[in-house]
């Protein structure tokens, strides 16, 4: 037993030499709240658009942060800067292999500037800032650093090796950051928050599609201010991959979309379909756009109703004679599924030509017919351009032996098919206009 007692200090010194002994303390100027699991905002639910921070916040404040679709979207707006000053004494201690603890400090200043994401754009809330100070000391050949670091602390950790010693410090920083977000929400105009809740709840509806229940949500595409990480990522991408018009704070929604879900959705749900139902015009007002559901077995339209000039709710209706003017414009051809969307739109345009064009020619006034002619001619120009670009991309792939040219070839064919459907419609309109001179 006496021999074992003599070996313990030597064994401990050996372990310290291999892994190092450390002690860490961390203190923050913003203390995490108490009883967070039962705290609420009088029924207001929040969803942070940053998935990582949403998951953290939901663990700490489950009654405030939610994935429910009616939860108000909030941009966290978190930024922090850390400073670790040099300690000249550590250079001297290095010559002793840190037999005496080397002392290190890190100060982190965090600014939390959340903003409500509404259809008018990002509405900033009052920011909250806090400071976190972390102090640590370490030794290599002695266990002195296993003693707690002197000074105030909200959390402490001590051990051999640094693999998990910083976990409590990171957790404290996360809790303080979430607490800062909650403070900004508590300081916000509660009437505004309650109105935002009612507005989102009103835009979530249960409807019927093909005789089966579905859920619909009327959403707005609002540009999100890029984070510093987003900007760094964009700078690393080639010029062609960056957006032409980067989002800035205050940009309002330009498009309203209807999202279709088979069951009551959450923020994590994937819609079975989404379609544009309204667009903002140059004067700032909203203009309804009739959308058609591709996922419906029978042709179904979606029309938005405006209340006080704002998109409020959407009506789904079966359509027997789709108006030809609803399918003249070329659908968006960027992104995944462009060919399938164009093929579907081409079929609908053909059906509209055969079902409703005679009525349009018979009942439309001359100015309306002229407007349709102009729209078709613009669509034809766009289709010719899209077709040529698709052919060029496919040819370049063949010449370089890189990529699959089939999707671009298919897109070029579909553009030409659409032109073949538009030509007789244009001819019939021009003939009818000529007869009315």
Give an overview in words:
This protein has 437 residues and is α+β, with helices and mostly antiparallel strands. The chain has helices at residues 2-19, 51-60, 88-94, 167-187, 190-202, 228-236, 338-363, 366-400, 406-435; strands at residues 21-28, 46-48, 72-75, 78-83, 102-112, 115-118, 121-124, 128-139, 155-160, 204-209, 212-221, 255-261, 273-280, 286-288, 291-292, 300-307, 310-318. A hairpin with a 5-residue loop joins strand 13 and strand 14. Helix 7 runs parallel beside helix 9 and helix 8 (366-400) runs antiparallel to helix 9 (406-435). The protein starts with a helix and ends with a helix.
Descriptors for this entry?
437 residues; alpha+beta; five-stranded antiparallel beta sheet
Strand order of the largest sheet: 4-5-8-1-9
- Measured distance between first and last alpha carbons: 117 Å
Please tell me how large the radius of gyration is: 31 Å
**Morphology:** elongated
Helical percent range? 25-40%
Report the biggest beta sheet as strand number plus sense, adding barrel if it closes: 5 strands, antiparallel
Total strands: the figure is 17
Content of β-strand? 25-35%
Mean pLDDT across every amino acid position: 84
Q: How many helical elements?
A: 9
What class do helices, strands and sheet pairing give? alpha+beta
Runs in which pLDDT lies below 50 for 5 or more consecutive residues are: 1-18, 227-250
SSE run: HEEHEEHEEEEEHHEEHEEEEEEHHH
């Amino acid at each position: 037993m006496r021999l074992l007692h003599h070996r313990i200090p030597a064994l401990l010194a050996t372990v310290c030499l291999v892994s190092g002994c450390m002690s860490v303390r961390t203190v923050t100027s913003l203390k995490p709240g108490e009883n967070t699991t039962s705290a609420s905002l009088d029924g207001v639910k929040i969803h942070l658009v940053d998935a990582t921070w949403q998951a953290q916040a939901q663990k700490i404040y489950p009654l405030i942060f939610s994935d429910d679709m009616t939860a108000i979207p909030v941009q966290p707006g978190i930024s922090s800067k850390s400073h670790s000053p040099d300690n000249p004494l550590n250079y001297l201690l290095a010559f002793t292999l840190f037999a005496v603890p080397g002392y290190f400090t890190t100060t982190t200043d965090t600014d939390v500037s959340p903003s409500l994401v509404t259809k008018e754009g990002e509405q900033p809330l009052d920011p909250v800032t806090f400071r976190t100070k972390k102090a640590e000391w370490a030794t290599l050949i002695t266990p002195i650093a296993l003693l707690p670091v002197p000074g105030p602390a909200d959390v402490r950790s001590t051990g051999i090796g640094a693999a998990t010693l910083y976990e409590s410090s990171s957790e404290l920083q996360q809790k303080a950051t979430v607490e800062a977000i909650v403070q900004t929400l508590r300081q916000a105009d509660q009437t505004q928050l309650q109105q935002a809740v009612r507005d989102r709840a009103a835009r979530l509806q249960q409807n019927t599609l093909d005789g089966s229940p579905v859920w619909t949500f009327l959403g707005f595409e609002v540009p999100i201010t890029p984070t510093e990480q987003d900007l760094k990522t964009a700078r690393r991408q080639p010029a062609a991959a960056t957006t032409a018009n980067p989002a800035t704070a205050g940009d309002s929604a330009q498009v309203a979309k209807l999202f279709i879900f088979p069951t009551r959705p959450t923020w994590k749900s994937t819609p079975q379909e989404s379609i544009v139902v309204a667009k903002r015009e140059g004067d700032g007002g909203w203009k309804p756009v009739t959308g058609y559901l591709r996922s419906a077995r029978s042709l179904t339209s979606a029309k938005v109703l405006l209340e006080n000039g704002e998109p409020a709710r959407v009506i789904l209706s079966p359509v027997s004679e789709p108006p030809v003017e609803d399918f003249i414009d070329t659908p968006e051809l960027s992104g995944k599924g462009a060919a399938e969307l164009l093929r579907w739109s081409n079929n609908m345009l053909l059906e509209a030509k055969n079902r409703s064009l005679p009525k349009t020619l018979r009942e439309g006034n001359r100015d309306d017919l002229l407007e349709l002619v102009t729209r078709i001619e613009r669509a034809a120009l766009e289709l010719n351009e899209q077709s040529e670009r698709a052919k060029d991309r496919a040819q370049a792939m063949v010449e370089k032996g890189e990529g699959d040219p089939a999707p671009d070839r298919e897109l070029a064919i579909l553009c030409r098919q659409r032109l073949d459907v538009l030509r007789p419609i244009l001819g019939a309109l021009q003939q009818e206009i000529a007869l009315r001179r």
